[in-house]
């Protein structure tokens, strides 16, 4: 639903307009930060003590998945509207979402917890939001 409304904004404002890019990226930041706050407030560990043991066992931890999924939907809409390879990052983000099993994401989750790892991701996404101000636009064909 959120992704659909993001697409509707893109239709009205224009998918290559900076304001739309900044707003959708900011929505993404807010969704990721909300997920970080929810997992932090759940009191659950971010990594299971033993392989096969569930680390997330209460309802709040599944709310985190809802916010992350909404974030992925918004990211997918932006990539689709820009018609770039940006959508390929959704696959990598989904791998972290489902398995939290690779590289830096796993290290962050182990050392600072899922909430901290999500907060780092939100911080990077916030920098991307600001980057839309300075990234040069496509040259206008004359």
From TrEMBL:
<keyword id="KW-0812">Transmembrane</keyword>
<keyword id="KW-1133">Transmembrane helix</keyword>
<keyword id="KW-0472">Membrane</keyword>
<feature type="transmembrane region" description="Helical">
    <location>
        <begin position="115"/>
        <end position="135"/>
    </location>
</feature>
<feature type="transmembrane region" description="Helical">
    <location>
        <begin position="60"/>
        <end position="78"/>
    </location>
</feature>
<feature type="transmembrane region" description="Helical">
    <location>
        <begin position="90"/>
        <end position="109"/>
    </location>
</feature>
<feature type="transmembrane region" description="Helical">
    <location>
        <begin position="20"/>
        <end position="40"/>
    </location>
</feature>
<protein>
    <submittedName>
        <fullName>Aldedh domain-containing protein</fullName>
    </submittedName>
</protein>
């Amino acid at each position: 639903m959120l992704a659909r409304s993001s697409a509707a904004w893109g239709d009205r404002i224009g998918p290559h307009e900076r304001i739309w890019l900044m707003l959708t990226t900011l929505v993404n930041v807010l969704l990721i930060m909300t997920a970080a706050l929810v997992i932090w407030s759940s009191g659950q560990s971010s990594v299971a003590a033993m392989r096969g043991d569930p680390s997330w066992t209460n309802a709040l931890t599944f709310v985190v998945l809802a916010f992350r999924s909404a974030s992925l939907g918004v990211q997918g809409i932006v990539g689709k509207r820009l018609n770039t390879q940006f959508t390929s990052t959704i696959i990598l983000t989904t791998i972290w979402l489902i398995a939290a099993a690779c590289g830096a994401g796993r290290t962050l989750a182990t050392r600072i917890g899922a909430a901290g790892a999500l907060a780092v991701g939100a911080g990077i996404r916030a920098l991307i939001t600001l980057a839309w101000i300075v990234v040069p636009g496509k040259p206008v064909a004359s």
